[in-house]
Amino acid sequence: MHQVDGGRRALVGSGLALAAAPVLALRAGEPIRLAMIEGLSGAFGNAGEAVWRNLLWAVERVNARGGARLPGGARPLQLLRMDSKGNTEEALSQLKLASDQGIAFVLQGNSSAVAAALIDAINKRNEREPAARQLFLNYSAVEPALTQEKCSFWHFRFDAHADMRLEALTEVMRTDARLKKVYLIGQDYSFGQHVVRQARAMLARKRPDIEIVGEELHPMGRVKDFLPYATKIRASGAQAVLTGNWGNDLTLLVKAVRDLGLAPRFYTFYGNALGVPATLSEAGVGAVVAVAEWHPNAGDAGSAAMVQAFRRRFPDPREDYLHARMQVLVEMLVQAIEKARSTEAAAVARALEGLKFDGRGLGVPHRGEMRAADHQFLQPLYVSVMDRAGPGGLAFDVEGSGFGFRTVRRFEVDELVPALSCRMTRPAA
Which of 30, 73, 170, 191 could anchor a disulfide with 112, C-beta 3.0 to 4.6 Å? Predict the structure, then answer.
């Protein structure tokens, strides 16, 4: 079990100071700046800060081994915090600020609606100003359209998109013969709407005997009391709830259902951290299912080493939320920069296309490939279920809760690979 002690309670210092530290340690060349545009305050600030820690750690590890190797000498990475406050207009304002500063690499993911707006703005700017083009690197915005009908040469997605995640989740649901009634609930924006719609379609195809006993969309980030929604779930007689909710919209939903004494199984995209295990405690054992590209108990000794190293860097259990895909994003960006021998956006984009990743030698136990045709990263997925950690249980818990996740099933790339529907417009060489 992952132990909680006084050392883990120590708070991490300010983000800007942490961002500067690895750059000051390297004097080989001007830093390659990465602008993380994310909601660091507001309703989903905790999710934004979790992203920040992941990306910061990835940047620090690259810099510790010398940075990106370029013909003019090694150059460190520098990660900049740009708070969108969870608002699309503010995100666009921050993008303009990054553009004005000549930052070529923009990172975002918490909200597909924000991602769509940023991609559109970058597309227009890159056409208007070809000498100062930018790349958009997406770690979590999973609406499929972003690599399908709205695909862009300037956008690369490192997370599995929603249909790939749903394919894995609903396949596990398909095999549960006892499951007869499911409630669908999501945030009322493009991603949440897509998850509810596609979940219904996939379950109808795979298990037509399952009854959808409720379908609900709620305002995103504005509901403080989910009791009315929990009451509807109780009245429906649902045995399971499927949701793409994330951040506090998921934690508060789970809490409201628990407070009513209900015990449905939650099939989630993001139920493996950000307070959900601690909120449910024993009631979540065997009842919370999550899908992700990796989880702390998924792998071998290399996987365990990555978890332990991250926890040494961020010893506060409240900051214990590690994503393999964010490590992959930074590592693949560096590989593409070195392959292109340039930091120019189009050259790096072409180097990223078709790039294969095997991070075992880098302390990232993950593999995958960036599909050139649509810029969707193809990788295995794990469906896992909440269980006890400690003696006789899982090796790692999450967030000091005493509970972690164990693998139910690993899905290989060929089980999830999405059909191609992207018609990408490419810039002239």
Answer: 191
Q: Name the residue type at position 182.
A: V
pTM of the model: 0.92
Q: Is 323 left (phi over 0), alpha (psi -120 to 50) or beta?
A: beta
In angstroms, the CA 109 to CA 138 distance is 5
The pLDDT of residue 29: 84
CA–CA dist 20, 31 (Å, integer): 10
Structural domains of the chain, with CATH? 6-160+318-379 (3.40.50.2300), 163-292+380-415 (3.40.50.2300)
The pLDDT value given to residue 9: 30
- CA neighbours closer than 13 Å in the CB half-sphere of residue 175: 8
Query: What was the pLDDT predicted at 300?
Result: 83
**Amino acid at position 203, single letter:** L
Whole-angstrom distance, CA of residue 366 vs CA of residue 208? 35
- pLDDT computed for residue 429 by the predictor: 76
pLDDT for residue 299: 81
- Across the strands, what pairs with 388? 403
Structure tokens at 429: 């060489």
In which residue ranges of the chain is pLDDT below 70?
A: 1-28
78 Ramachandran zone, left/alpha/beta (phi>0; psi -120 to 50): beta
Please report the pLDDT score of residue 26 as a whole number. 38
Please name the residue that has the structure tokens 């790039």. Answer: 355
Q: What is the dihedral of CA 388, 389, 394, 399, to 10 degrees?
A: 110
Contacts of 201 (CB under 8 A, 6+ apart): none
Q: At 207, phi and psi to the nearest 5?
A: -140, 75
Q: Please give the DSSP secondary-structure letter assigned to residue 283.
A: G
**Which residues have C-beta within 8 Å of that of residue 98, sequence separation ≥ 6?**
35, 37, 80, 82, 106, 134
Amino acid at position 152, single letter:
S
